[in-house]
Amino acid sequence: MTDRYSEIDEVILYIQKNIFEPLSLNQLAAYAAYSPYHFTRIFKEKTGLTPQYYVSSLRLQKAKDLLLRTNLSIRDIGLEIGQQSLGTFTTRFTEKVGMTPSEFRNSTLLADSHFHSLRKLDDWSMPEPAARLPFGTIEGIVQAAIPFEGVILLGLFAKPIPEGLPLYGTLLSSLGSFCLADVKPGTYYLMATSVSWGTKAVDFLLPEATLRTRSREPIVVKPGIPVPQQLVTLHVPRYDDPPILISLPVLMNNFLRRSSSPGSE
């Protein structure tokens, strides 16, 4: 966190404390004593997201929590986060999390199985594709602000929030170097989180305490122009970090499937 736009920090805390209440743009802007236009501009500069997108994302994170920690029906959980239509809630949840609300609620055992399979995995390298495409490569180093041993999930996303499947991604068995190859020209945001060995499934299904990192600035891939090496540091969660919406076990399972495949997808 920085002191720049500290008033936005206060708004973020207000949002988090009142996430189940109506939170209009005008209301949030007034809380910060800004016009809606100016408030939206500096909120996006601070978080990478518009206020409305941040609130919507945080509510989906709360829905994940309610699915695992309560017996509320899926319809009632949708209503809790302001979704009047069960179909709309299910569609949005599935798009952002990678599975339906029902599948997520019942995914604890499967998540634990994927995590144990990763821990027993000897070879973490990915199979080479039959023919490599002449696109860009993003390489870098992952380090951590505090000691860590476990799995690191790293990906490139179209928006500055880890939601939906990453456009490109990989898993790492330790801190150190990473490489994302054959990245098509475009604009991406690098996001990563980690799961320490021994973590219980519910704690990475609801990754609110996992180490994480995100690129504040987009990574632009252009034909024939090398991408600078990325140095990213996993840190403890900060309250202005966007919620991790994608279900980490989905990424674990995808990695396990690719690692056992004779060729890449």
What does this structure look like?
With 265 residues, this protein is an alpha+beta fold. Helix content is 40%, strand content 20%. The chain contains 10 helices and 8 strands. Strands 2, 3, 5, 6 and 7 form a 5-stranded antiparallel β-sheet that branches. It has a 3-stranded mixed β-sheet with strand order 4-1-8, with no helix packed on it. The chain is globular. The relative contact order is 0.16. The model has no long low-confidence stretch (mean pLDDT 91).
For the secondary structure, the number of strands is 8
- Contiguous low-pLDDT stretches (5 residues minimum) are none
* Class of secondary structure makeup: alpha+beta
Rg, alpha carbons:
19 Å
Helix content: 25-40%
Q: How would a textbook summarize the main sheet?
A: 5 strands, antiparallel
The number of helical segments is 10
Gross morphology is globular
- What is the terminal separation in angstroms? 39 Å
Strand content: 15-25%
List SSEs in N-to-C order. HHHHHHHHEEEEEHEEEH
Mean pLDDT: 91
Core attributes:
40% helix, single chain, 20% strand, 265 residues, alpha+beta
Short description:
With 265 residues, this protein is of the alpha+beta class.
Topology readout:
Blueprint (H helix, E strand, L loop, with lengths): L5 H12 L7 H8 L3 H12 L3 H19 L4 H7 L5 H12 L3 H5 L2 H13 L15 E9 L5 E8 L10 E5 L3 E8 L2 E11 L4 H5 L6 E3 L4 E3 L8 E5 L13 H12 L6
Parallel strand pairs: 1-8
Antiparallel strand pairs: 1-4, 2-3, 2-5, 5-6, 5-7
Helix pairs in contact: 2-3, 8-10
